[in-house]
Every structure is written in structure tokens, then in C-alpha cells.
Amino acid sequence: MAQVYERVALIGLGLIASSMFWAMKRGGLAGEVTGFARSPETRETAREIGLCDVVYDDIHDAVRGADLVVLCVPVGVMGSVMEQISGSLKKGATVTDVGSVKRDVINNVMPHLPEGVQFVAGHPLAGTEHSGPRSGFAELFDNRWCLLVPAEGSDPAATAQLRKLWEGIGSNVEEMDADHHDRVLAVTSHAPHLIAYTMVGVADDLRRVTDSEVIKYSAAGFRDFTRIAASDPTMWRDVFLSNKDATLEILGRFTEELFALQRAIRQGDGAHLHDYFTRTRAIRRGIIEAGQDTDEPNFGRGNGSNT
Amino acid sequence: MAQVYERVALIGLGLIASSMFWAMKRGGLAGEVTGFARSPETRETAREIGLCDVVYDDIHDAVRGADLVVLCVPVGVMGSVMEQISGSLKKGATVTDVGSVKRDVINNVMPHLPEGVQFVAGHPLAGTEHSGPRSGFAELFDNRWCLLVPAEGSDPAATAQLRKLWEGIGSNVEEMDADHHDRVLAVTSHAPHLIAYTMVGVADDLRRVTDSEVIKYSAAGFRDFTRIAASDPTMWRDVFLSNKDATLEILGRFTEELFALQRAIRQGDGAHLHDYFTRTRAIRRGIIEAGQDTDEPNFGRGNGSNT
Fold first, then answer.
1. pLDDT tens digit string along B158-168?
2. In a domain, B64, yes or no
3. By the number of CB atoms within 10 A of the CB, which of A32, A108, A256, B126 ranks highest?
């Protein structure tokens, strides 16, 4: 694969940035990759494992001369990081991000965007429940979607070049407007995460009653919720606060449906429950056909090897 | 391993029965295994794939002479199946089941238990989102829990023998009383399943609005919910109707917590959200330490190979 950018700067060195780094190296997509993380421990770890060609202690050194700057920080601080680096950006550079919310990020970043620099927001739909510089791997984005949301009035050439990078990283790329992105993600990701967090929190309260049985007998269902609810707390706090309206709207619909199903249970309305569960089963087939998950049994963990 | 029962009858030939069969064969735990399923198609499939040594078209033939009869049917029909086979059971036989609810099953089965036959209820905590005779595999129960709930006044020797079978199948066995079982499972399995079904149902409604985007961009979170919500509709309908009180109680607590988190989002209370998410993350560690799941990234699906 051909080089797409001469110099790329990764700001924030967690799961996404480290996976991007290994994928860019795998594909020979960047001449040099610089990195910066706020925490000295993270920078130390990055240097130790060879994450980035150079890790700088000063964020300005990391972005200076970069053709592409990737903001891999929680969405709640995107604006202030942009404000901080604004004066050190090269003319003609592109800034992008990897946040899970787009309208709020664009609103917070754009006021600090210097003349002659493009902002093309981005969101790779990939992740694991692990975080930190050691959690990345080159294959994370392979065959997953990356959604690009070009800021109004940005240069289409900047978007085209960024698309080339993400395709080289392994992703399928689509463009979308910010509000639409935030509504779709509220359904497919944000509301489900809050629900999983809630259920695990309820179990935690009960654990004090039933000793360790909730953990000991954690079956499929709850066990899968705990994976989701193990995701990074700072990232998710920011997601919910930044995509407040869409998330609350979906949660409102969710509560409505849940009440209807609770009533069906209370009234012994088996037909209602059976119809509902048959309908949801069909969605699963759609997802497998869309190539977004595996059909392997036992949640792809291998046959019963969960030891 | 030594043979535990001379003759075992499996009633209902889905995921659990077929996995039990392959595990019993693997371990040489039963002399002969007979089988029965209500549907002719299922019996035909079972014969085709060698599931059971003999598959009978008549349930009475299947249980006649069996030392152990395993009821692998939805919990809503356990009582009527027991009533049906009652007259054909061998004196000295043990009857068990594999249902996800225990109080209701015991209440429905016991009135039909003939003199000289023992009932020891059982619940293997294992499963996948697949169902039917082809979905079983010998390793399903390896290192998973199997909870035994001996009926009041049953012979401890019957429980001891059944325990030996499940240990031979690969499970860790514990005894528990029925009400306690149903409360623990409401938290770890029943409420989470209803919640997953609900969220997927909400998305299904919205899909009509956003075309196929909900499926196309199904990220971690929702994707995992769809797996849970792909489970067998009849089985789960019966679970909710049979464990009504405990499930509704947990759902009540869940709704309470969800409202508190929704309020925190609405009010922008980031500290509350961050604390909550940090607390739930710790539960995940407990489950991994308890050996009930793998710590592999990307939900154990392998690195990005979700194609």
C-alpha cells in the first residue's frame, strides 16, 4: 500500500490510537507517526512498547509539522485540546478525531480551528472493553465501518485523503452528517451501553445480599453485560453528556417498551412475549448477513473454553 | 470414566439434550441413551446425525426402563410432560430437568411423580444463542456450573448419582434451594435477557425510520444484545412467566437505577456517571477471576475477524 500522509500525530494513546498506529505501520500508510499522551506513565509505556516513532512530552512538538493530527481523547476534552494545539498546526494540515459523538465535537472544535487547517470528524466503529496503550492491535478496524463527518465548508480533498487512510487501515468508510450520526449511534451503541451499565450496577447492589453468587453464577446474558459495562468510564461519561438528547430519547422509548413487556409478564400474556422475541430474533440474522458479527456458537468464545 | 446410568432417556432434543448426549458419549457415562422429541422433523434430524442410540416416536417407549429421565422441554410444559410419562416410569428411576426456573417446575412436576420415583431438578448454566438438535456439542458444559435442586423428601442417593453424571459431563455441581435459585437467576440471566430483548425491539421499530443503518452500523453494545435476543422465544417466554415475581422485582430495581442515570445525564452530573461506571467495571474483574469468562479482547471473537 502507498503512503497516505508524510507525518501523522496521535494525541491520546489509548486503544484506538495504538490500534491505528499498528495498522498504519502494517500498511506503510504514514512516513512518521508522532504521539503525545497527557499522562507520563502512558508516554513511558508507549516508548517501552514502540508505540509511535517518537513520543513527545510536549503536545506542541507532537503536532508541529504533522499533515494529519488525530485527536484520540475523550469527547469532553476535544475542544480544549484543539484550543491548545491550534497555534502549532501546520498550514494545510487536516485535524480529525475518533470520538463516538460528532455534533458536540464539531461544535467544540470548530471555534479553535486556525485558517488553512481542515477539520474532518471521524468515528471508527470498533473497540473492545480494554483500554490503554497496550490494548491496541493492527486488526481492530479490519472490515469495520469508519464514519467520516466533514465539517461544513471543509475541503473535499481533505476528506478524500482521510478516507484513503482509513481504507488502508482496513475499514469501510462512509460519510454522514453529524446529527444523523448521533441519532444512529444512540440506538446502536450509546443507549445499549447505559442499559448494560445499569444492569450491572443493580447486580452489584444485590451482590451484597447474595454474597458472591451473582458473580459465581454469572450466565450468558449478564456476563455479556459486564463486558460492555467494563468499558472506559471517562469515555462513556463524556459520550452520554455529549449526546444527551438522542440518548435520552432512545432511553425513553426503551422504558416504554420495557413497561409493556413487564405488564405482559405480570398479566401472563405469553403470546405478546413470544411474538416480541420472535421479532427480535430476526434482527440477529440481519446483522450476521451484514457481516457485522460471527455466527459461531457460544458468542464466538470457542466451545465452552471459558476458563 | 465409569458408567453412571445404565439407561438414560432425553425428552426434547434441542441444544441442551444434544450437548448432554455428546458429553455422555465422550465420557462413557451411560449404557444406552434413548430420545424423544414432539416434532417428527426433530426426530428425523436426530436419527440422521446419530443423536441418541435410539429415537422413539412414542414418548412412553423412550422412558420405559430408563434409570434417568431428563426433561429438556420448555419450563411451561414440564408438568404436562411429567403427567404424560408418569405411568411408564420404572420403579427406582430418577427424573430430572434442565429448566431455567426451579420453583415453578417443581410445583408442576411433583403432583405427577409416581411412588418410588425420585425428582431432582437441575439447571446447567450453559447455552448459546442457537437451538435445535444440530446445535449441541460435547464441550458445552465443560467447567460451567450445574445447579441441582432436590425435591423435598427425595432420596439423597438419587442426587448423588445425578451429581456424578453432571461432573462426568464436565460441570461443577452445587445444590441450592428452589427459591434461592430463582432469585439468583433473575439477576444473572432472566432480567438481562428481557432487557436485551427490549433494546433490540426498540431498534427494530427505529429501523423502519433509519432504513438498514441500525443493522449496518451495529457496534459492540447493540451487537451483543442481538445475540442474547436471538435466543429461543418459547423457552424465554416460559422463563419469564414461570419466574414472574423475581424477574419483575429485579426489573423494578433496574428501572429505578436507569431513571437515576437518565437524570444524571439530563442534569449533566458527570461525577455521578463516572463513579457508577467505575464501580461496574470492578464487577467484570470479579467474573474473570471467578473463571466464568475470558479476558480476550474484542469479546473473544478473535482480533477483528468478525466477517
1. 999 999 999 99
2. yes
3. B126
